[in-house]
C-alpha cells in the first residue's frame, strides 16, 4: 500500500495501510491498534505522522481513542443505520407527468435569494478539494502561449488538446474514443440537453431513474419531454425488469437517461453485468441510452468503474460527463460522445451556444497531461471517502430513530431516508432560516415518493462550522420527527 | 475633431478632419488636398504623421496621389455600384418552411473541414482589432484576485460586476437596465435560444427579416419553430407593412426576431421612428419582440444607435447582444435582458447550461470599467470603417458589371448582389478550393431569393494576402458571370 500511493501524504499512506487491515478483518472490532510508538518504528515515520494517521482513522470512525490505553478498532458506523428502502416493484403512478420545473425552480430560487452560510445542498466540493493553484498556473501559461486567444473565434467542437485529453481520460472508464468523437460542452447540463434533443422530440417519453437528478427533470420539462420514472435500487441501480414492463406499457420511449456509476442522489453503482444488459436491451429495443458519468473518478474502489458505453458496439450509447465535480467547479467544462448521433450533436451545439471559449480548455488539457491530474484524483477520492464516512457517522449519531442511510462508495452526497411521514421540504425551509441549504428529496422525483428523503453534500472537509450546521439540521429533523 | 478624439492616433485625427471636410463638400472631388508640408504646419505634426494621414485617406478611397502634384480628392467609390435591390412588396412564398438547417450545416461543415487560409466568411474581426493584451492583463489580475475561482461554483445569472458593467453599457443604447435585469449567456446565440424558448413553442411561427442571419434560421429549425420571412429593406430594415399583412395571414406568430441596428447581412439601420412603430405594433398585437443588438457599437455615426428596447414600456422587448464582435471573439460573452420573461429565462438558462464560468466575466467587467473600453470602441469603429470602404472600393473595381452594393455605416460585412442568375454557392465552392471562405447568400433565407448574393467579412485590415484573396474571389465571380 505504502509503495503503491507514493504521492499521498505519509500519514495517509499509513492510515490507508490500517484501513485495509480493518476492512480485511485482520484487525477486528475491539482489537487494539498498534501503539503510536510502534507505528513510528514499523513505518519509520515521525511521532506527529503516526498520530495524524490514528486521528485520520478516528475521524473516519474506524478507531476510537480510549483514555490511557490507546486506539481501538471500533464497530463501523454503517450498521448504525439500516440501508435505505428498496423500491416497490412495478411502475410508479402517473404522477410522473406532473411538472416539477416550477417546484424545483421555486426551491432553487428560495435558496438563491437567501444568504446561505453553509451549503449542504450543493453538487460539488469545497474549493480546498480542487487543484486551483495548478489550474491558475496552467491558465496563466495558456495566456502567454496563445496571446491572440481572446481575439480569435473558438475552434469548433472544442480545443484539440482537450478533446485528446478527454479521449485519453475515457480509457480509465474502458471507453475507446478518438478525439473527434468528443464535443466539449458547457458542463454536463449542456451535454444532456444536446443528447436529449438529438434523440427525442417534444412529447416523447424518456425513462429515468427514480429518484433522479432534479436537473434532468428540469431539462426534460423545459424541452417538453416527459419523464417516466423507473424504480432504482440503492444497491444495483435502475430496475431492468421495471424498464421492460415500461417498454411494454409505453410505445414512445425514445431514450433511457441514467447515471450507472454513483447515481445521483442514491450513490449506487450498477454491476457491470447489469450495465451490459441495459446496453443490449436499449440496442435491441431501438431506444437510445444516455449516461451521465460525471462522478466515476470519485469511486473509492481499487478498480476504476466502467462506463455503460464500454459495451456499446453500435453507437447507441451517448456518453455525457463533466469535470465540474472532480476537477474544477468553476470552469464549467463538460463533454459528450454521441455515437451515431455525433454529427447531429455537433450541429445542435453550434446552434445552441457555438464552441466553448478556449482558455479553460487549454489550461485543463495542459493539467490533465501531467501526473498531477491522477495525483489530484487520488487525493480527492481519499478526502471524499473520509468526509462521507464522518458525515454518515454524525448522521447516525444525531438523527432520530428510523433514519436510514446507505453509505455510497463514491460521490459527494449522502441520500438520507427520514422517518416515514416527515416532510423534507419543511426541513429545507427551517434550516434555510439558519442560513443552511440542504436538498429536499421532493426535488428528485415528479411523485411524492421521496418527500421524506434528504440529500446532504459531503464536499466540505470536517470543520467546526460544518459540524455545527449538521447538528442544526439534525436538531430540526429531531424536532419534526413523529 | 482633433479635440474630440484625443485618444485616436494623431494621424487618424488629422485624417478624420479632412474626411469630414470631404463629406461636407468643403473639399470637392478634384480639389487639391493641402500639401504634406502645409499639413505639418496646420496641425503641428511630423512629416510621417502628415503622410500617414494622407495614405489613410487614400486607402479609404477618398484621395488619389498624382505623381509630382500631390493628393487630390477623388470621386467616392459608392456611386461606382448601384445600391442593392429593394425587396418586392407582399409576402414571400411558402418556401419559408423548407428546412435550411441541413443546408447551412453542410456549408459550414464543408468549410470547417477544409484548410481555410483566408476567412472572408467569418462574423468577427482579425485579432489585431481587439484589445487582447489588456484583456490578458485583466484576466491575470482576476486570477490573482480570486484564487479560489476555479474551485467555486459560478454565480447564478452572471458575475455581479459584469451584469453591472453591461447595464451601464446599455445606457449607450438608451436602455435603462438594473444589473439584475441582465443574464450573462454564452454569446448571443445562447441568448437567442433562451429568448425564443421563453416566448414560443415548437410549431409556432417566428417572423424574421429576409434576408436574415443564418444562425437564427438554424436555431429556429433546431427548436422546431417556423421562420416566416418578412421583406427587409437595405435602407430601412424590416417592412412593417409586410409584417401587418403577415399578422393578418398567420394567427400563430409568437415573436418578431430582428436586428434593428446594422442588420446581418444587409447592414441597414432602422430609423428610430420605425423602431418605435415596431415596438408599439408588437405590443398591440401581443407578439414578443426579440432584438439582437450585437453590432451597434461599430456604428460610424456621431450619435450612438438606440436599441428597440429604448421604447419598451411593458417588458415586451427581449434585448439580446454579445461582446463577440466588438470586444473579444474568443470569450463568447453575451447577455439577455428579457423584460417580462426574465424569471423564465433565468430558469431556462439554469436548465440549459448553468451560469457562465466567472473568469472571463470578471476580466471583461474590469476592462469595461476603464476608459480603455471606450477608446477601444472608437478605434474599432475607425478601423472597420476604413476596411469597409477599401473593400467596397475593391469590389467596385474588380467585380463584374451588374454587381450591386449598399455600403453600410457599421458592422463587419458587405452584402453584395451579384449579377442576376449567378449562384453564390458555386462561387463559395470555387473559392473554397483556393482556401478562401465566403458566405453564400443562400444561407440567409429559406427561399432561393438570395442565391446570387454574397456576404464578405471586412474584419481584416488591408493586407496583401487579403487583397489577393479578394482578387481571387473577384476573378471567380467574373468567370462565372453571365
UniProtKB/TrEMBL annotation, chains A, B:
Taxonomy, superkingdom: Bacteria
GO molecular function, one term: transaminase activity
Tagged with keyword Phosphoprotein: no
Residues annotated as domain HTH gntR-type: 8-76
Keyword Membrane recorded: no
InterPro entries assigned to the protein according to its UniProt record, in alphabetical order: Aminotransferase_I/II_large, HTH_trans_reg/aminotransferase, PyrdxlP-dep_Trfase, PyrdxlP-dep_Trfase_major, Tscrpt_reg_HTH_GntR, WH-like_DNA-bd_sf, WH_DNA-bd_sf
Alphabetized Pfam families for the sequence: Aminotran_1_2 (PF00155), GntR (PF00392)
Keyword entries, A-Z: Aminotransferase, DNA-binding, Pyridoxal phosphate, Transcription, Transcription regulation, Transferase
The family this protein is said to belong to: In the C-terminal section; belongs to the class-I pyridoxal-phosphate-dependent aminotransferase family.
Protein's UniProt name: PLP-dependent aminotransferase family protein
Record organism: Cupriavidus campinensis
